Known about the structure:
Elements: H1 8-31, E1 37-41, H2 49-54, E2 58-63, H3 66-78, E3 85-89, E4 104-110, H4 119-129, E5 130-141, H5 143-152, H6 156-164, H7 182-191, E6 195-202, H8 212-216, H9 220-231, H10 235-238, E7 243-249
Parallel strand pairs: 1-2, 1-4, 2-3, 4-5
Antiparallel strand pairs: 5-7, 6-7
Amino acid sequence: MVDRLRSRGSVRSAVVWESVRAAVGELVAVTGRDRLDVLDAGGGTGGFAVPLAELGHAVTVVDASPDSLAALDRRAAEASVANRVRAVQGDAMTLLDVVEPATFDLVICHSVLEVVDDPSVALASVVACLRQGGLVSIVAANRWAVVLHRALAGRFDEAVQAVHDPLGRYAANDPTPRRFDAHDLEVLVMGAGLAVASMHGARVFADLLPGGVFDSDPQAIEALIALESAAAAVPAFRDIATQLHVVARRD
């Protein structure tokens, strides 16, 4: 997985992956089990599921798209972890229709809450899948980042709209149904009965930089990952990151 992070596209997931890997390490230490049960809700083609399976864990991916699940199967086979990855067609809002309750040590819920019909229902579904003491990794779109991004693109009217819109949308044709700020996301997580262990920003700088920065300097990828990691927990940077990343525990 380390080598896979050395590309511009994976800079966007590198900091989140490091937090997830740390959470996995914590769970292994607490449970005394080297093989954890992991659920990836909305996990698509396995960007996190396959690396977790490569670490030796059993991963179930629930996704609504049969095409994504087919791609997941191919990806898992290519990585020689098909025996540790299970693909299940289903919906994040109704996870208990396809998996058993309280059977997972870790649930991944990335880029899901901004697109589901009801984030609180989806998060309750996620929590129901967790064992006591289990962790959930949540990644959600940050509403203040889109204000910055629209302004830098010269779309000032859209930036103003995003400031005032209660869902953080910049226009009627905004493809993202809702975004969260740090406070709202924390309230949502705590309302689901979870205790927030950490909250970081993801993609503080990666989405703002021109591609030429990476093309001209092969070392820039690793330097940017280091910068993203250093800035992720600083509130001023977290609050303008493209995404917010919460790790929370079911106590």
